[in-house]
Write a structure and sequence with these properties.
Distance between the termini: 94 Å
Number of helices: 6
Shape: elongated
Strand content: 15-25%
Helix content: 40-55%
Strand order of the largest sheet: 1-2-3-4
Order of helices and strands: HEHHEEEEEEHHH
Structural class: alpha+beta
Length: 194
């Protein structure tokens, strides 16, 4: 039974290592496909880095170093290397997907989820609110659904202080021209009453 568990968990490690490698490759290919990137920043929960992937990578790194260098455990070296590889690939994919990208074509909140990519022409309104870390923007955007009706969603994005000025400049170029076109025309009430 003990031997079965060793093979089972070794096989599980191989499967998860392959899956995390494929996910990291997918994230890298999505990043390289982005065109016209004007601005980007880290948006993870741990000082801009993804929380769980970073904690996992640091813990596996520390445990591997303790086991290999202090306890001289060279028998389990391939297992620690597999876990470290899996953690590194998970970190790469999480790091790239947690970054926010502002492009010529719209806002990309997560490069691995097309539903979180909003083209500029879908945005109908936005609100900005100052926070302790920067400025939080809430964009309302129209998304046509299959029933020929428009469905409105909201995208919240927090822009750090260091990027707020550049982000406002991009918004003024991309959205203000569009939003100014939707202003109501002046109505001559006297002509309407007669």
């Amino acid at each position: 039974m003990n031997e079965f568990l060793v093979y089972f968990f070794s096989g599980l490690l191989v499967v998860f290592s392959l899956a995390s490698t494929l996910m990291a490759g997918y994230s890298l290919s999505n990043k390289f496909r982005l065109r016209g990137v004007r601005l980007h920043w880290r948006a993870g929960k741990l000082m801009g880095y993804p929380l769980f992937a970073t904690v996992f990578l640091v813990l596996i790194g520390l445990l591997s170093m303790v086991s290999i260098f202090i306890h001289q455990d060279t028998l389990h070296y391939p297992i620690f290397l597999g876990y470290f590889w899996m953690g590194s690939m998970w970190f790469i994919s999480s790091y790239l997907s947690s970054k926010h990208y502002i492009t010529d074509h719209g806002i990309v909140k997560n490069i691995n989820d097309p539903a979180q990519t909003i083209p500029w022409y879908h945005i109908v309104d936005y609100v900005e609110h100052p926070t302790s870390k920067g400025m939080q923007y809430m964009f309302s955007y129209a998304q046509p659904n299959t029933q020929e009706q428009e469905h409105f969603n909201q995208l919240r994005i927090e822009v750090p202080h260091s990027h707020t000025q550049a982000f406002n400049k991009i918004i003024s170029i991309k959205l203000h021209l569009k939003l100014d076109e939707t202003e109501l025309p002046k109505i001559n009430w006297k002509n309407l009453q007669s």
